Amino acid sequence: MESGLSSLLSVSIDFETSHLFFPYIVHWLMGGLFALILVLNVVPFLAAVRRGERTLPILGESMDKFRFFGTLVLIVAYFYLMSVVGNLFPYTGYGFLFVSMVFVFLMSLMYMHTRTRRKVITAAINALVAPSLAWFILAKLFQITLP
């Protein structure tokens, strides 16, 4: 009886594959959420398009080219510079922290329709606080290595 209870309470960790546990969970959750989006939003929308009640939003509408291409450039620069800055401060997560601050601020400015002093200050505070909080939680509390 004692050996059966001790086997239930013992934990063995395979350190060669243990880091794959949470990515599997995240992949399945994202796949499930994607399926929900398809079923609840995309399928009814496409049915309405087929009936002629709605049109596809990407056809015939004007596009904000500055924001579209600006977003693409900022995303590419974000990932590239995160690696570059991360190599200047290896194993500290400062690449993530510093580049995320600039990225969030520039994205906020790009999508801000009217720039007032209050909105720019709010965007600057958000650009400092949000990445700092994420960096602190991930790098310091959970000890996750960041670029």
| Structural class computed from helices and strand pairing | mainly alpha
Largest sheet: none
Distance between the termini: 49 Å
**Helix count, DSSP H or I runs of 4 or more residues:** 5
- Radius of gyration equals 23 Å
Tally of DSSP β-strands: 0
How are helices and strands ordered from N to C?
HHHHH
Low-confidence stretches: none
Question: What share of residues are in beta strands?
Answer: under 5%
Shape: flat
Q: What is the average of the pLDDT values?
A: 88
Count of domain modules:
2
Quaternary structure annotation: single chain
Overall helicity: over 70%
Task: Walk me through the topology.
Layout: H1 2-9, H2 21-51, H3 65-88, H4 94-111, H5 117-141
What does the model show?
By secondary structure, this protein is mostly helical. The protein folds into two domains: 1-60, no CATH class; 62-147. Helices cover 72% and strands 0% of the residues. The protein is built from five helices and no strands. The model has no long low-confidence stretch (mean pLDDT 88).
Task: Looking at this protein, list some descriptive labels.
147 residues, mainly alpha
Structure summarized in a few sentences:
With 147 residues, the chain is mainly α. The protein has helices at residues 2-9, 21-51, 65-88, 94-111, 117-141.
